[in-house]
Amino acid sequence: MNQTHIHLLITHLPIFGSILGGLVLAQGILSKSYRTKIAAYNLFIISSIGAGIAYFTGEGAEDSVENIQGVIEATIKQHEEFALYALISLIILGLTSIVGLFLTIRKSRWTKKIAIVLLIISIISFGLVARTGYLGGRIRHTEITNGGNLPSEKSVKDTDE
Predict the structure, then answer these.
(1) Which of 91, 98, 89, 87 is nearest to 120 (CA)?
(2) CB 3.0–4.6 Å: which of 23, 37, 54, 134 could bond 28 by disulfide?
């Protein structure tokens, strides 16, 4: 397994982890369950680690696709630049989750406030990492780049005749 494989496998973790963690945290806030909040914070921490792995394996993934016909360097660059913002937001989410975890375990009076702050950060992080994933998908998925307007089988046959 090389960096490209790792990059492609791990990139989905921060996307789904940030939104799933946000949903779990919202449930924890509504039900006032400190255990549910702790579960959400753990999801955020894992997602943050996944974002770091995805970011740092991105260069290896770039090296393996940049010379493939049809891959546009500007698309890779756009994905790479936006990934930095997603990484920063997920690092903030992960570090703040460690604080939230500590406060929740200690049953601090700040538990509810940190949970709300983390919910907001998770929503922002999800938006950034989802956009990063979309931009990454455009590198090799022509169905995204062309807006889903792939030629039909009939139109391909018509051009062959």
Answers:
(1) 89
(2) 37
Query: Would you state the torsion angle of the CA atoms of residues 9, 38, 132, 60, taken in this order, to the nearest 10 degrees?
Result: -40
**Coil, strand or helix at 147:** coil
Instruction: Locate all alpha helices (DSSP H) within the chain, ordered by sequence.
Output: 3-10, 12-31, 34-65, 73-105, 111-140, 142-145, 153-160
pTM here is 0.82
Which one, of 23, 1, 145, 15, lies nearest residue 83 by Cα?
15
Q: Which residue has the higher pLDDT, 88 or 136?
A: 88
Q: What residues have CB less than 8 Å from 91, skipping those under 6 apart?
A: 48, 51, 52
**pLDDT band for position 145 (cuts 50, 70, 90):** low
Q: Give the structural domain span for 137.
A: 3-160
Q: Look up residue 92 and give its two tokens.
A: 């903030």
Hey, what are 105's tokens? Answer: 């375990």
33-41 long-range CB contacts below 8 Å, 24 or more apart? 34/104, 34/105, 34/107, 34/111, 37/100, 37/104, 37/111, 37/115, 38/101, 38/104, 38/105, 40/97, 40/118, 41/97, 41/98, 41/100, 41/101, 41/104, 41/118
Give how many domains the chain has, as a whole number: 1
